[in-house]
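Appendix C. Worked example: Phosphoglycerate kinase
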Amino acid sequence: MKTLDQYNFAGKRAVVRVDFNVPLDADLRITDDTRIRMATPTIRKILSDGGSVVLLSHMGRPKGGPDTKNSLRNLVARLEQEYGTTVRFGGDVIGPEAAQLAANLQPGEILLLDNVRFYAEEEKGDAGFAQKLAQLGDVYVNDAFGAAHRKHASTAVMAQYFTPENRVAGYLLQSELDNAHKVLTNPERPFTAIMGGAKISDKILIIEQMLDKVDYLLIGGGMAYTFAVAQGGSIGNSLLEADKVELAANLIEKAKQKGVQLVLPVDSMITDRFANDSDVDVAGNLDIPAGWMGLDIGPESRETFADIIRQSKTILWNGPMGVFEMSNFAVGTEFVARAIAQATAGGAFSLIGGGDSAAAVNQLGFADQVSYISTGGGALLEYMEGKELPGVAALEGR
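Step 2, the predicted output written as structure tokens:
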């Protein structure tokens, strides 16, 4: 796979697939610009070489064509601020306007085209659509790691319309792969994985993969209650995947067989209703009263998790420990984030696995105290699960 530093973009027009799927508020203002900032080194490299840039991205899940909320026009002002130059905007990615604007680009200029998902052909991976996109430039750069697990036209199909020497991985995509590879293949020990979130069903494959790699596997979040039932516990109204109880029991047994310390919460912060201003108490994870639900790991679990994390040398975290969006149930997630920051300061390598984990680290103020925060929750999970990422395979000519 060709990397950015192996390519001179002088006089070249680069079609760059970025992931600018950033959240907007009701007034269409960007509330988190992380994905924009992470793509900047790639854009700057192309421009500094003397190339020009055509930016392609998706945003949201538009239905039935263009709409104002999901238009990339909303990003132009922020991009001009980021790059310190004018960013031209073309509304239709495959129309004559886009083709003309792209053809007229001069070295150092940037063109942003509108949401590729305004066309149903994008998500269908339509070859004809991909070929039209490919005509916008001389070289294809994929820097959209967050969409690399999608076999869409702009992420996995259009690469075939460029010669192998003109298919290039951007800095962000390369960095994501390098950091994930480091954790998977050469972890310094002890290696601890922390898995949270609502459902075991979302994390089955990565949990099974981790059982072959880690020394400690810490389980928190809503999925912990399915494990509690597998241990014979009572969980009140806590989240339960009843059809995954047997699977949870099997995972506990597999961990024992492989010599992995599978650490489950022993207590929970519980409440009688799903609200931040509700009554809160502490209960054992196997003895949550009827009518109550666990929404965060409890005090004893926090300390146990933090102690294990602080003595770890490699850390992978994917999924919060509770409903961290509510301040009363964010304490467990904050404990984990702080412990990871402390371990990192002590020389550990920490990889935060995108999605809610990345949001939590940013929200709680620990973003600059961990080794790497992935921009691609789903893509990182699939890579960790051992699946081929279509966006990466396309760059490699597969």
